[in-house]
């Protein structure tokens, strides 16, 4: 569990780092210029890390499933070798899903405005600047979201259902409370991560005219700022060892 938490925290730090420095220079220094290649690089990093985050949450759901539903086999199933393979598969899947979007954007002609009305670059945000047909980009973005995060959500939901079914058959009330608390913190993180991100994707694809533009910008900022900010708090409060380690760290700093 702690290995997955550290991987998730690293991905969140990289996700915020790929967006917030440029956003802060826009707000604080008024430096709004960014090259097209830099824009594509930022877009790739954001979507790559988002898909990777989704896969990490799925891996954590599997980790909780094994820990609660098959605790005696936990150490034999989730070995360090298996965790390394999960991490490798996560990065490979994210790269394979997101890398084609770079070429889909580079093939488009850009003869309209070169101003993107966002604090950072998204796939559909860049594609909307083109003066050509972007139907391929729209459908690819939708398919990528459904086949990656959409599939992850389905698998995470299945794992939660199986976990809850096992929890309610536990003989100890204390064990039930502990298991529900662990799953509850994970579900909170999942909702914080998926809801604004998926709403932003579908709003870009289908609600461009009906949804105000500032809503698009707000949602885009939410899913790269809120989860990295609140996830450490959620897991820190719900996980006894992390809470005790944090208190001990502050006590040592105060000496």
From TrEMBL:
<keyword id="KW-0716">Sensory transduction</keyword>
<dbReference type="GO" id="GO:0004984">
    <property type="term" value="F:olfactory receptor activity"/>
</dbReference>
<dbReference type="Pfam" id="PF13853">
    <property type="entry name" value="7tm_4"/>
</dbReference>
<dbReference type="InterPro" id="IPR017452">
    <property type="entry name" value="GPCR_Rhodpsn_7TM"/>
</dbReference>
<keyword id="KW-1003">Cell membrane</keyword>
<feature type="transmembrane region" description="Helical">
    <location>
        <begin position="179"/>
        <end position="202"/>
    </location>
</feature>
<keyword id="KW-0675">Receptor</keyword>
<protein>
    <recommendedName>
        <fullName>Olfactory receptor</fullName>
    </recommendedName>
</protein>
<keyword id="KW-0732">Signal</keyword>
<dbReference type="GO" id="GO:0005886">
    <property type="term" value="C:plasma membrane"/>
</dbReference>
<dbReference type="GO" id="GO:0004930">
    <property type="term" value="F:G protein-coupled receptor activity"/>
</dbReference>
<keyword id="KW-0472">Membrane</keyword>
<feature type="transmembrane region" description="Helical">
    <location>
        <begin position="82"/>
        <end position="105"/>
    </location>
</feature>
<keyword id="KW-1133">Transmembrane helix</keyword>
<feature type="transmembrane region" description="Helical">
    <location>
        <begin position="214"/>
        <end position="234"/>
    </location>
</feature>
<dbReference type="InterPro" id="IPR000276">
    <property type="entry name" value="GPCR_Rhodpsn"/>
</dbReference>
<feature type="signal peptide">
    <location>
        <begin position="1"/>
        <end position="16"/>
    </location>
</feature>
<keyword id="KW-0812">Transmembrane</keyword>
<dbReference type="InterPro" id="IPR050402">
    <property type="entry name" value="OR51/52/56-like"/>
</dbReference>
<keyword id="KW-0807">Transducer</keyword>
<keyword id="KW-0552">Olfaction</keyword>
<feature type="transmembrane region" description="Helical">
    <location>
        <begin position="138"/>
        <end position="167"/>
    </location>
</feature>
<feature type="transmembrane region" description="Helical">
    <location>
        <begin position="41"/>
        <end position="62"/>
    </location>
</feature>
<dbReference type="InterPro" id="IPR000725">
    <property type="entry name" value="Olfact_rcpt"/>
</dbReference>
<comment type="function">
    <text>Odorant receptor.</text>
</comment>
<comment type="similarity">
    <text>Belongs to the G-protein coupled receptor 1 family.</text>
</comment>
<keyword id="KW-0297">G-protein coupled receptor</keyword>
<feature type="domain" description="G-protein coupled receptors family 1 profile">
    <location>
        <begin position="1"/>
        <end position="235"/>
    </location>
</feature>
